[in-house]
Predict the structure.
Amino acid sequence: MARSYKSFVRGYTIITGIGYLAAIIPSFIYNVAHGGIGWFMVLITSLMLTFSFINVPVLVKKNRALWTLGSATVSLVLLYAAGCVYSHGDWFVMAVLGTLLGEAIVFLPFVLRSERLEKYVRNSKGLVCMAADSVLTFACVVFGTLKYGDVVDLRDGMLATVTCVALVWAVFLIIRYLKVNGFFKGALCFVASAVWVVAMTVLSNAWNGMKLSDIISLKGADNDRYDVIVCLCLAGVAAVLAIAGVVYKFVRKKPQDR
């Protein structure tokens, strides 16, 4: 079986290598004949990305997922660079930041659970993921607003980002570090959400120039009535979960007392 697998890998590599050469050689000749290699570099980096997905998992024996993800990320960044140079664009940094943010959200939890990294992060994997996601989110907002907007856009973007990230961090800290049962954690998460909705309603209306008395009385703000309904629903769910948490704690403690 080992010999058969080695033969398969060898044949698979040779066949895909021939396919790569069949794409590279004509493209290189065409680009050189027409006085440029910009499109050729796009082709090369595209084939590198293809190689990362269909060849790296076969050639690497250990940590295949990490090697595949790493090589695909590097190849994709190089593809962005080649495409940006070829198209004379200015979107390279924004594309890289957005890609890294997406990969961090989706793949970083699994990467930190690998044997090579888990011994360093241990019980802080969630904290590392949240920190990385937050830093990359702020990086995207700062660069994007300064690149495609102005200082006013940066102020508004940072305010919106801070408020949104604050709720996510509050829910994360409640779930990860609070030493209570799941019902109480759920109740506190809904309470935090209700408080966040109230705070955002007040801040957004104040930002638009409304007086505090008008905000409290809901005068001239029809959408705020929906926010009140949302807050009441969140508070109701929180109350139900809190009651369930008390009952669960009492039922769980009763057999131990006996």
About this structure: The first helix runs from residue 2 to 33.
